[in-house]
Amino acid sequence: MNLSGVLEIVRVTDVGLHREHNEDAIASDDTMGFVVLADGMGGYKAGEVASEIAVLSITAELKEALAKQHPGKVDLALGRQAEAQLIINAVKSANEVIYSVSQTQPQCAGMGATLVVGLFTNNKLLVGHIGDSRMYRLRNQVLSQITEDHSVLQEQIRLGLITPEQAKYSTNKNLVTRALGVDPEVELELNEHNVEINDIYLICSDGLSDLVEDEVIESVLNDLSSNIENAAHTLVQLANDNGGSDNISVILIKVNASFEYKETWLDRVGVDNFLGWLK
């Protein structure tokens, strides 16, 4: 399914005010309908290596897999599980590469990355994440966080040890409970969401979410919903205005039209059968 013109995607990444290197990496493809963000960690420049490997590896694998799919083949013949498996396989491969490099290159020892990867297909969004990078959705002017951080703070909130308000001032920020590439295997959390026209999705590293309150993000996205490029740059600037203590990455995706797949006669008879009849 070609989503050109259906999804409007804007990407912005900024080193911030206190870091020498940008350890965030981002990518997207508005025709194939996927977005990827990784926030690296570990050692001098090693985080930068981990995030670049994650995004390059996942992007290459998704592009190759999606290019092989005849429109509707995954949606109708194989079911949603096949699309989920594309993401699972891509993340698994990236994890293996990062882990291998960290084990064989001393300067990269212990490196890893947080991750958010989204795939838009058939009026659905499949989103996988690892760590504390986030995805939000603005729908009907209300902002909702649709990923849950894999972090010490989130575990404390879940157990009732602290409140979300107390978490804002905790010294345990940025302590993640899982990350890409740190271990031979990693658990990817993968969820599916219905997509509606005029939805705006935000993927960001914690360089934004730690420094800009959700209420402010909501206000910016509502005020600049007609110009998401300005919205993305405004969010980055707000993070820098509030200290810019980390790298800041933002991907905004606006849904401009429905992209429900409509089965055609060619899908019903099958491409291979049709080509056979022509011989």
Tell me what the structure shows.
The protein has helices at 46-67, 73-78, 80-104, 152-158, 164-167, 206-209, 214-223, 228-241, 265-269, 271-278; strands spanning 7-14, 24-29, 34-41, 112-121, 124-130, 134-139, 142-145, 189-194, 200-204, 248-255. Strand 4 (112-121) and strand 5 (124-130) form a beta hairpin. The strands form two sheets. A five-stranded antiparallel β-sheet has the order 1-10-9-6-7. 42% of the residues are buried. By secondary structure, the chain is of the alpha+beta class. The radius of gyration is 19 Å and the shape is globular. It has a single domain (7-149, 179-278), classed as Phosphatase 2c, domain 1, CATH 3.60.40.
- Count up the helices: 10
Strands of the widest sheet, in order across it, are 1-10-9-6-7
* Low-confidence region ranges: 71-78
Secondary-structure element series: EEEHHHEEEEHHEEHHHEHH
Q: How many independent structural domains?
A: 1
Total beta strands = 10
The CATH homologous superfamily is termed PPM-type phosphatase domain
Fraction of residues in β-strands: 15-25%
CATH class (first level) name: Alpha Beta
CATH architecture: 4-Layer Sandwich
The largest sheet, given as strand count, sense and whether it forms a barrel, is: 5 strands, antiparallel
Rounded radius of gyration (Å): 19 Å
**Average pLDDT level:** 90
Query: Distance between the terminal alpha carbons, to the nearest Å?
Result: 27 Å
| Class from secondary-structure proportions | alpha+beta
What level of helicity do the residues show?
25-40%
Overall 3D shape: globular
CATH topology: Phosphatase 2c, domain 1
